[in-house]
């Protein structure tokens, strides 16, 4: 199974902070929960306002594994120092392979 995860952060600075200081930690901890990160992208924009980070992840039963990860100490450790209210929304979209 593959998913596209869309993270809406409050602004560009929050998105950059999240990517530069916390995604590297996710890349270490997520595989321990059976979640593989294939690609991560940040929206390319110059104006202030909400900014999106996109991740393509894969694994089996991703909804449950993501729930387990989000409730884990590993997730809490990954996010130390990041203001969680800067993440305004997270949307998971299940993907299917075409051809």
Short characterization:
This is YCII-related domain-containing protein. By secondary structure, the chain is of the alpha+beta class. Helices cover 32% and strands 32% of the residues.
Explain this structure:
This protein has 99 residues and is α+β, with helices and mostly antiparallel strands. The chain has a single domain, classed as Alpha-Beta Plaits (2-Layer Sandwich), CATH 3.30.70. It contains four helices and four strands, in the order βααββααβ. It has a four-stranded antiparallel beta sheet. A hairpin with an 8-residue loop joins β2 (36-42) and β3 (51-58). The longest helix is centred in the first third of the chain and has 10 residues, at 12-21. It is globular, with a radius of gyration of 13 Å.
């Amino acid at each position: 199974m593959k998913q596209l995860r869309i993270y809406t952060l409050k602004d560009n600075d929050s998105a950059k902070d999240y990517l530069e200081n916390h995604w590297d930690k996710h890349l270490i901890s997520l595989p321990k929960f059976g979640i593989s990160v294939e690609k991560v992208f940040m929206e390319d924009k110059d104006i202030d306002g909400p900014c999106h980070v996109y991740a393509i992840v894969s694994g089996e039963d991703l909804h449950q594994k993501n729930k387990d990860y989000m409730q884990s100490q590993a997730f809490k450790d990954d996010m130390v120092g990041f203001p969680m209210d800067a993440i305004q929304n997270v949307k998971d979209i299940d993907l299917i392979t075409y051809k």
